[in-house]
Design goal:
six-stranded mixed sheet; Rossmann fold; alpha/beta; four-stranded mixed sheet; 10 strands
Length: about 260
Amino acid sequence: MLGRPAVQTSPRLIERQAPTGDIALVFEGVAKTFPDGTRALEDINVQVHSGEMVAIVGPSGCGKSTLLRLASNLSSPSEGEIRVGDGNLGYVFQDPTLLPWRNVQRNVELLAELAGVPRAERAKLAADAIGLTGLDGFQQHLPRALSGGMRMRVSLARSLTMRPRIFLFDEPFGALDEITRERLNGELLGLFERERFAGLFVTHSVIEATFMASRVLVMSPRPGRIVSEIQVPFGYPRPTELRFDPDFAAVAGQISARLRGFSTE
């Protein structure tokens, strides 16, 4: 906003510490103000436990993606503290961000290659991730030869090579058609059940949030605050048919009502 000075970030505020116990990720009093004076986030207090999938919904521009960038250290908070557990952190963006000149195998190996993992080892890691994400047989395909859903599988496989204990998902399936989206929701939950990483999943879809998560956090318009937390009372695994269950509809309706309460439309 005009007239507001840029906020300087104190080194104390961006210090990364490990959380205690089974908590994988902590935001404590976190706020973010951009250099132009835009206050994106305000007083964020969130804990994500190991082996837990937490979804975040909120109106456009409320700071959901900013929250993930802070968690991944791609950006620094203006206030507050973020604590991240041990182990690698995976980040799946809205866009697959694949290198168009590399085939699937080489794209999946990329993070391990950048981390200095020896060729034979990263080939093995990539092969495991390719198998987990249903990409067997597509190793030599270039991204332009793949559907949108297949490209997102490659993006997910690339992050899986580093065996992350914390996964950040920034609307990874938002651009896909409904059928592909539902299929990938199920496949991702299968990986979650197998690997039991801690997940923070940003989405605009209430149905997707309800299906994926054990807790759903609702954010207010900018500056984004956590204004509601809804427990999702369904265990894992979750069959596709759960979406048609009256109890599922009731939980999704509760989340939608909380979200509409802060809608600016």
